[in-house]
Amino acid sequence: METILADMRRGVDKGLMEKAGSIIKSGGLVAFPTETVYGLGGNALDPEASARIYSAKGRPSDNPLIVHISGMESLDYIVGEVPGQALMLADAFWPGPLTMIMPRSAHVPLSVTGGLDTVAVRMPDHDIALALIESGGGYIAAPSANTSGRPSPTTAKHVMDDLDGKIDMIIDGGSVGIGLESTIIDLTESVPMVLRPGYISLDMLRDVLGEVRMDPGLHSDDPSFRPKAPGMKYRHYAPKAELTIVEGSEENVRAAIESMAREAISRGQACGIIAADEDASSYSCGIVRSAGSRAREITISRHLFGILREFDDLGVDVIYSESFDTPRIGMAIMNRLIKAAGHHILKV
Ligand code: TXA
Ligand code: MG
Description:
Elements (H helix, E strand, L loop, with lengths): L3 E4 L6 H12 L4 E3 L6 E5 L3 H11 L8 E3 L6 H4 L5 H10 L4 E6 L14 E5 L4 H9 L4 E2 L14 H8 L5 E4 L10 E4 L6 E4 L5 H8 L3 E2 L1 H4 L22 E6 L2 H17 L4 E6 H4 L6 E6 L4 H18 L3 E5 L7 H11 L4 E3 L1
Parallel strand pairs: 1-8, 2-8, 4-6, 5-9, 10-11, 12-15, 12-16, 13-14, 13-15
Antiparallel strand pairs: 2-3, 3-7, 4-7, 5-6, 9-10
Bound molecules: threonylcarbamoyladenylate and magnesium ion.
C-alpha cells in the first residue's frame, strides 16, 4: 500500500482533510498528531477498521483502543451512562490529555474495547486531530501510532519509520507538545482510579474530584498485582539497547554514569546517556542526549521517546539514564522510563 504523507505543519489543509475524512469513513487508517503523541486513527464504529489498526501495529487485540471525540454531544452515543464525574473532569480538562473509562454503549463494537464492557474516551486538544474527527464522522479509535512495543511517536517521521506502507495516510503536524500519552482515569470504580499517569497529574484530578487513587498494579513488580489497563502490562516503550536508570544525589548519579559509560566503551559497547540539560555537559564519553531542563519538565516529556528511538537508530548497546522525578509530570515520565528499562534501576 502507498502511504500518503499529508503536510499540515502550517495548519489544517481543507482539501487534504476532506480526503483524510473520506479514508476514515471508508474503513481506512490515518495517522495524525495530537497534543500527547501521534495516533493511528480508524472509524471507531467499524469493527473492520479496528481489526486493521491491530494488524498495522502488530498489537494484541485484547488491548483496547481509545475513542476520540471532538464535542461533548458525542458522549451519549458511545457511553452507556455518563457519570457526573466525567462532566466535571471534561469541564476542567477537555479538550486535553485526559482519557476517561466509562460504561460502554452498544454502539461501540467489542473489537474496539478488547471485549470489555467499558470504553475509553478522549477529546484531544489539537486542531488537526479535532478536524480529522469531524471530517471522519465523529468517532475515531486511535492507539499511539507506533509498532507495538516501540516508543510512542512524537513526530510524523517516527510514524513513517514504523507504519509506512501499512496505512493509508500520515498527517504531518510537526512535533507534539507533551510527548507522553494521556492520563487515563477509570470512572467505573467506586473511587476513581488512575490507570496510566500523564500530564494531568493526580493532584489536578483530586482538585476536581476529591478522592482519586492510583492503580496499585502500576507500582508493583509483584505479578499478582496486574495493572487494570491491559496496555500497561506489556513491556512497552522499549528501546533495543539495555537501559538502566540511575537514581541518587545528582553528584553520585553523574559519577556512576560516567564510570559505567567508560567501562561499557572499554568493553567495545556503544553507550548512550540520557541527561538533563543541567548535567549534560559534565559527561566526557558516550553519546550524550539532553532530554530537557529539570526546571521546565515539559521539555523532558517532549523529548524522551524521540531520544529512545534515536538510540535505536544509532544501534546503541547500553543506555544509562538519569532519573527525572520532577514535581508535576515526573510520575508520568518515570512510569514510561521505568517500563522502557524493564524495571532496571540502580540506586547510587
Ligand atoms: O495520548 C493518548 O492517549 C494517545 C493519543 C493517540 O490519544 N493514545 C494512546 O492509545 O496512548 P494507546 O492505545 O497506545 O493506549 C491506550 C491505553 C492502553 O493501555 C489500553 O489498555 C487502555 O488505554 N485502555 C483502553 N480502553 C480501556 C478500557 N476500557 N479499560 C481499561 N484500559 C483501557
Ligand atoms: Mg500505545
